[in-house]
Amino acid sequence: MTETIDQTTPIPVLRLEDIVKTFPGVRALDGVSLTILPGEVHALMGENGAGKSTLMKVLGGIHQPDEGQIIVAEQPVVMSGPLDAKAKGIVFIHQELSLADELSVAENIYLGELPRKRFGLVDWAELEAKTNAILEKLKVGFNAKTRVGDLSIANQQMVEIARALTVDAKAVIFDEPTASLTDAEKVVLFEVISDLQEQGVGIAYISHRMEEIFKITDRISVLRDGQYQGTVNTADTNEENVTQMMIGRKLDLSRNEAHHELGEVALEVRGLSCGSLFEDVNFEVRRGEVVGFYGLVGAGRTEIAETLFGLRNPTSGSIFLDGAEVAITSPHDAIERGISLVPEDRKGQGLVLGMNCRDNMTLPQVDDLKAGPFVADGAEIAIFDQYRDKLDIRTPGWKQLVGNLSGGNQQKIVIGKWLSMRPNVLIVDEPTRGIDVGSKAEIHNLLRDLAAQGYAVIVISSEMPEVLHVADRIVAMYSGRIMRTFTSEEVTEENLIAAISGLNTEKVA
Ligand SMILES: Nc1ncnc2c1ncn2[C@@H]1O[C@H](COP(=O)(O)OP(=O)(O)OP(=O)(O)O)[C@@H](O)[C@H]1O
Ligand SMILES: [Mg+2]
């Protein structure tokens, strides 16, 4: 299928025609076409592993296509690599950050193109001035001289974006740019995108977040299993239709209400504080229960999770597991006692990209699976197979290096890793970030299933539909304090928003 363009359509900034790309065991792209017009924001959507990033890597010359053509300003071109693409006016903000930690922000932004003085010496003053001018536009809280390794993931993302803005771009490709941005940073990003749009730059935008897609894009193209499914005007479609194009079926969004009895209190927290990060936190989680933690970024939710997992030391308060007070001083302690944490920053904390899928998944259990001096291969493969099916992880086999999986499938490996430990208390921080709608529903069902099997589950999420959907009770946090705890019967969008904005001071523990 190719899209038709009528006479009134402006000349596309770029076209991809019938692109085919295969990897061993995977036909990642199977005849995909895409047209980007000047001044449009064009969404590229599809499930995890559908081929979105691969298509953009073909466009950027990181991969050469097996078949098909790239056409820039009506001229067929060969892209020899990212610098070549950049020279042709196409810049990328990739899903995986590609920055040098040891270098400064300015050096990263102008890497390979540092401004020079006579005798080839780097013109540091010029470099700093140019960089700070761009950073000012992005309203970030760091400067040209900051070392990139000292920045948060979100700020590193802003450095990537700054780098894209140094070029006189015809097209800018964003691959899941907001996955780790806060709401305030997103506002800045959307302003940047709208500026680019006004200058006639064509934008390709990859994201799994429907609200964003419907807010900022003009057209949506969909891939499924490497095949082009069509292009629609955003204004003429809705979430349900796009989802159906992506997964080829209607999605069952009803909540998994498998009725189950609540068991004993598995985890109880009393008067827990950690400096100014959170104060006097009280809650309990029973076996069979999913408790959602909802609040704005910075409300202290992740810090509570980190304290329960032994990554932070509380300044006061107590933690009880199955009724007995415990001191958890390290992740090792936490794991021993049956607490697992699926962290927010899964890339940084969860995966070894150069290791295969199976070994990544069973890493924390290697000691237990050992048969004599050797690790029992069969046992490990069985664990991998079980969670591959449960989470629908798309990979040709367990031997595949995790670095070769699509972004969303990498995240599923980390989730599988912690689930396979069969913890008593499972804490998941932003469990569906970067995960497509179909798998998102599967992960929600899985969390509710785990509760039904007797686990105590804590879900931290910044997405209101997510907590409303999965949680039996919702803890609303504001500025390091629990404002209120809601049962799923009494919670509404309004009272939840009021509580996390600090407007509702009624405290129900
Ligand atoms: N270098 C590689 N070697 C082997 N297989 C690869 C490689 N790069 C991608 N693939 C495979 O190609 C398919 C498409 O992956 P791609 O990264 O394009 O997906 P995606 O649509 O971007 O998904 P996500 O939403 O999860 O980021 C996947 O099956 C992936 O495992
Ligand atoms: Mg991708």
Automatic annotation (TrEMBL):
Its EC number is 3.6.3.17. The keyword Hydrolase applies. SUPFAM superfamilies: P-loop containing nucleoside triphosphate hydrolases. PROSITE patterns: ABC_TRANSPORTER_1, ABC_TRANSPORTER_2. Pfam families: ABC_tran. Keywords: ATP-binding, Cell membrane, Hydrolase, Membrane, Nucleotide-binding, Plasmid, Repeat, Sugar transport, Translocase, Transport. This is Monosaccharide ABC transporter ATP-binding protein, CUT2 family. It comes from Phaeobacter inhibens. The lineage of its organism: Bacteria, Pseudomonadati, Pseudomonadota, Alphaproteobacteria, Rhodobacterales.
